[in-house]
Amino acid sequence: MSLQNRIINHFTDSIQTKQDALGELCELIELASQRMVTALLNDRKIISCGNGRSAACAQLLSSALLNQFERDRPSLPAIALTMDATTLTAIANDYRYEQVFSKPIRSLGQSGDVLVTYTDGNHSANIAKAIDIAHGKDISIIALTGHKGEAISALLNERDLEICVPSGSAIRTHEVHVLITHCLCDLIDHQLFDGMA
Predict the structure, then answer these.
(1) Taking 60 as the threshold, does the pLDDT of residue 197 lie above it?
(2) Is it the case that residue 148 has pLDDT exceeding 80?
(3) Is this model's pTM higher than 0.85 or not?
(4) How far is residue 27's CA from residue 7's CA, in Å, rounded to a whole number?
């Protein structure tokens, strides 16, 4: 296969996965944005976390909320638990890596906050522990997963939302997670600020 054919295959696979996700996930993305807006209107915050490429999605979300997405508007309260390398490595060193997200949630999380977790399919003990602690603090979960994310799905309760990308590929799942994150940011801005001069 030529290099250009490999490029074409990547684009084609990405487009197909996004089309499949659009058909399955549109309503869930809308509902997730509404839950996040409700939390923000009630002076609560959006907390996000993920590992590896998924950490980048968590940071993308918090950056767009804290700073701006596509328009100048007031900052929104958001924390990406992946941002502080000193704290992450201290917790991993002094305790276990499984607690790198749960310890900050235990101390910073409040009832009514929303925890947005990202995982492209592999079971992540630190995400599982974060969900457990969040539930104990009355924090609802929006879990962005892939088809290999059954372990995370099993931890969610009736108040939580799972947005599961219809793909077994970690790369395609990550690409759609970025697009979903952009959709969430746009929908939040639209609901909160469309009347703003």
Answers:
(1) no
(2) no
(3) yes
(4) 31
